[in-house]
Write a structure and sequence with these properties.
The structure is a single chain. Helix content is 44%, strand content 19%. It is built from 3 helices and 2 strands; from the N terminus they run αββαα. A two-stranded antiparallel ribbon has the order 1-2.
């Protein structure tokens, strides 16, 4: 896996924290989801945890 570009990582950083804004855009016409994840999530987060966070945010977005 390629290392993320430092400039993009800094742009996505949430208020100087170790969290990043991430936009999850699925294929097949499903809605995109915005998440805040810990830096390094690409390598350190199991797919099942990411899927759980996406589903939770989708539910929150649909409730609005």
């Amino acid at each position: 896996m390629r290392e993320p570009c430092p400039e993009k990582t800094d742009a996505a950083r949430v208020n100087g924290s170790d969290r990043l804004r991430v936009l999850c855009t699925p294929s097949g016409g499903a809605a995109s989801v915005r998440l805040e994840l810990l830096n390094g999530w690409e390598a350190g987060m199991p797919d099942s945890d990411l899927l759980q966070k996406i589903r939770k945010q989708l539910g929150a977005d649909q409730a609005q």
